[in-house]
Amino acid sequence: MVDLLVKILGGGGEVGRMAIFTKDVNSDRGFLFDYGVNFDENDRPVMPSHVRPRDITAVFLSHSHLDHCGALPSLYVSSPPPIYATPLTLELADVMFKDAMKLSGYYLPYEDEEIKAVLDHAIPVTYGEDVDVSKDTKATIINAGHVPGSMLTLLEVNGTRILFTGDFNLSPSNLLRGADINNVPRDVDVVVMEGTYVANTHPPREEVEREFIRVIKETIEGGGSVLIPVLTIGRAQEILITLYKNGIDYPVIIDGLARVVNQIVAKYPHYLANPELYIKAVENSLEVTTDYQRRSLTKEPVIIVSPAGMLKGGAAVYYLKKLGRDRRNAVILPSYQAPDTPGFELLTRGRAFIDKAEIVLEAKLYWFDFSSHSGRAELEAFINHFNPDTQVLLVHTDAIKALQFLERLKVKYGIDNVHVPTNEESILFSIK
């Protein structure tokens, strides 16, 4: 009998701020899965609950988005634990830490020295690898299909198996293969999984792409330009491939931090679904490196791909101000828009306050579902993959939508082994 404690430090009944701590109750130390940060409407960080670094045997980082990694450097002041992640995730996380420092450095509880300490204590791992973490603990690393380098972690502690998904996507995309569920055993004792889209089934990607390309061609042929605000990691690369694959032969401009990320991702082609297609897509785009180039870009019809995906900053805001006043132009949002973000305001009101000034959009506005998360159907399939006695904790999700999802599972499949924990909650599992 093993008594396994799982504590929700962040991500309980909320999307983002993911942080899960687990330990054998008879052990002095445990394991941390992710340690992310959210940001409020004033770009101030909202940190997960504290865990003492000396209580951590090891950290497992699922991927490089700030809502999963952004609080990690705060743990590397003293007694720094080893951190396991793919080399691509580690390199991208370094970029994201430093970008967060630029945006919210005054409020963040770490500086450059702590960022360096994270990387100094990193142990790179890759898909299919079995890692001996300690004498009684083994970790298996599995492709998560979410963003380049993302991983599922299967941790075996004293014979007890716990799976942490981070964000994952069972469906393949132009950029990545889907999560490798075939390498996930059915007899896992505890699964901690994301449920971002428990209430949504994504439309077929072929349909999304077809309409996306139609809008772009129609706009350019009508003499307008297209602005596509993107998430720096994952969505920027997916959009570039989608444009290239569909034969778009108009100028494609890449700006902002996505330029740096594109080059880093190119160093790790084995994580991509089609490395050759990716390299061609990146080479086919034009990088903006100076303010002069940026100012001259909007004089002719072009397609601009630039962070930030929710228009909370980045070069995309500059282009929005330039292009948003012309009805011939189009703004295409290919990402989820969180409430209280300028992107959400544009979608719901057609106007938004950015840099303390109101922008009223005259350009056409579109939203397309290019999500890199599993939708409701995939989440159901994932849960059904496991044995009936597997205990499932659903995190990184809206609490009300998650409870409705639980009711659906009971009615449709007779499943009652899924739970929606809250932040600060500790769950004890007695496993034979």
Automatic annotation (TrEMBL):
Pfam families: Beta-Casp (PF10996), Lactamase_B (PF00753), RMMBL (PF07521). InterPro entries: Beta_Casp (IPR022712), MBL (IPR050698), Metallo-B-lactamas (IPR001279), RibonucZ/Hydroxyglut_hydro (IPR036866), RMMBL (IPR011108). Keywords: Hydrolase. The keyword Protein biosynthesis does not apply. Residues 236-346 form the Beta-Casp domain. Residues 16-202 form the Metallo-beta-lactamase domain. Gene3D superfamilies: 3.40.50.10890, Ribonuclease Z/Hydroxyacylglutathione hydrolase-like. One of its GO terms (molecular function) is RNA endonuclease activity. This is mRNA 3'-end processing factor. It comes from Vulcanisaeta souniana JCM 11219. The lineage of its organism: Archaea, Thermoproteota, Thermoprotei, Thermoproteales, Thermoproteaceae.
